[in-house]
Write a structure and sequence with these properties.
Length: about 130
Amino acid sequence: MPQTVSRTTNYRDLDLDFLAHPTTKDVSKKVGEDAIKRSIRNLVLSNFYEKPFRPFIGSNAQKLLFENINSLTANNLKNAIEEVITNYEPRVRLNEIQVSVDADNNGYKVYLSYIILNTTTPAIFAFFLERIR
């Protein structure tokens, strides 16, 4: 009887800080969950028409940050984040997105819960979106 081998995928991306690896002096890599978190962050923070030849990649969240801080804008931000991750990050399956208004700090708290494909444990990524003048 043939033996079944399960393959686990270890996702890798370049570290966009372009820091040199201490021993190899090559560009370091983001591996696993860190690579996916960086990719999600880059997708959320990119605007439309920022990537050459791929004008519709992005969430346009920066535009929404200059709207009034209220629950309607938070809902629009949630929809934009959900759309960009669903369309352009095939390595994850979203479980939950929460966007809450933080009027005291003039921004939004974003909480993402997702499952990395080929794993069973959910990953959590929380960050704060604020406008920069």
